[in-house]
Structure formats: structure tokens, C-alpha cells
């Protein structure tokens, strides 16, 4: 019998017991021994049934709880397994990306590396996380024997994007702090965009228009000249 049916039957038996108990005074007053015995047997039978039902219900609740616990444990294990697989995939992708980046850098063997990274990452990661990854990349590049100078471009703000600009401000501050004092590394800020009378952005408010792209290329040139000036004399 299901737990629901047992609870319904228990309710019926309790109501019957209440009714029998109320009738007991009337039966006793009549003084008929046979009627009193029948009343007593009836009440004892109902109480016995109630006790059995209560025991069955408690047992059913116990096993229902156990089943629920087992289901939750199974779901938890499945979740952990999925998260583990996802983490392994992310780590594998990160390793492949790192190897690919290292191979590209090795193929060029540059003495100067100017990094323009982190903008897209802010859409799905906290600025401190993005900054930490950039810091790791900088130190990875510095371990290569031919890389002598690394410049890190700070994030440029966007038009009408207060949340992105807030994240960019935090990331820029983070980079300036963690990279300050690191030998052969400098942070570079692109200037001359937001001071223009006309907007430097395309209608999407994200990408630069042609005029602003020229300003950006000039800024890259400035970063490269700064790096060249910092190269040790031969």
C-alpha cells in the first residue's frame, strides 16, 4: 500500500476511534455488559490497527527519505563528474592554447612583444581573473630567451558601456599594480580616443572607426618605440 493510501486509512481510523470514544460513555451508562465488551473490543481493534498503520507509515517515510537521499547523492555525483569533465576539458584547451601561443612566438622569435589582450575575456570573467591570466602570460613570455621587452596595452573604454568600463578600470588598475616593478615590462595606455569631438566608434559602440584605427596604430607605434628605447645596447 502506498504512503498516501496508508495516511488516508489512518485518518479514517482516527476518526472512527474518536467516534467510538464519544459513544463509550453512553454504552457504559446503559450498563449492558455485552455491549460494553463489544465496545471495548472495537476500540482495542481500532487502536491496534492505528498502531500498525503508524509503524508502516514511519517505515515508509524512512525508506522514502533514504530513496530521496540516494537520489540526491546520485545527482551530486553526476554533477561532480560533469564538473570534473568540464574542468579537464578547460585545462586541456588552456594547455593547447598555451602550446599554440608558445609555438607562434617561437616561430617569430621576437625581441619585443606588445600584448593587446583581455577585452573579450571581460564579458565572461572577473577583471582580477583576466588580470591574473595576463600576468601569467607576461611571465611566460619573459622566460623565452629571445623576448627582451613586453608591453601590455591597457583596456580602452567603450561608448555607453558603464559596466564594461567599470570592469576595464578595475583590470587596468590590477595590471598596473601587479606588473609594476617587473623588469622589462611596461603598461601602455592608448590615448586620444575619448577626447575627440566625434565618436571614435562604429555604431556598435565597440569597434573603432577608420579614423580611430589610425590613432590606434599610431599608439602601437608609440609602444614599440618605447620598447626599442628600453632594449639593452648591443
Automatic annotation (TrEMBL):
Query: Which SUPFAM superfamilies does the record associate with it?
Result: SGNH hydrolase
InterPro entries the record matches: SGNH_hydro_sf
The name of this protein is Uncharacterized protein
Amino acid at each position: 500500500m502506498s504512503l498516501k493510501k496508508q495516511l488516508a486509512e489512518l485518518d479514517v481510523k482516527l476518526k472512527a476511534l474518536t467516534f467510538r470514544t464519544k459513544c463509550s460513555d453512553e454504552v457504559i451508562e446503559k450498563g449492558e455488559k455485552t455491549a460494553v465488551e463489544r465496545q471495548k473490543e472495537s476500540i482495542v481493534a481500532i487502536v491496534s490497527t492505528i498502531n500498525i498503520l503508524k509503524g508502516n507509515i514511519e517505515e515508509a517515510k524512512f525508506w522514502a527519505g533514504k530513496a530521496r537521499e540516494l537520489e540526491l547523492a546520485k545527482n551530486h555525483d553526476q554533477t561532480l563528474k560533469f564538473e570534473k569533465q568540464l574542468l579537464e576539458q578547460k585545462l586541456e584547451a588552456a594547455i593547447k592554447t598555451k602550446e599554440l601561443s608558445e609555438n607562434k612566438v617561437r616561430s617569430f622569435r621576437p625581441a619585443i612583444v606588445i600584448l593587446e589582450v583581455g577585452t573579450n575575456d571581460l564579458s565572461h570573467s572577473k577583471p582580477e581573473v583576466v588580470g591574473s591570466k595576463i600576468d601569467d602570460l607576461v611571465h611566460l613570455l619573459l622566460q623565452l630567451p629571445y623576448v627582451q621587452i613586453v608591453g601590455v596595452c591597457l583596456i580602452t573604454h567603450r561608448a555607453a558601456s558603464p559596466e564594461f568600463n567599470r570592469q576595464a578600470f578595475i583590470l587596468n588598475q590590477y595590471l598596473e599594480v601587479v606588473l609594476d616593478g617587473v623588469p622589462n615590462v611596461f603598461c601602455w595606455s592608448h590615448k586620444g580616443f575619448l577626447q575627440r569631438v566625434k565618436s571614435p566608434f562604429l555604431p556598435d559602440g565597440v569597434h573603432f572607426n577608420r579614423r580611430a584605427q589610425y590613432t590606434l596604430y599610431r599608439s602601437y607605434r608609440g609602444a614599440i618605440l618605447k620598447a626599442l628605447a628600453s632594449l639593452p645596447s648591443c
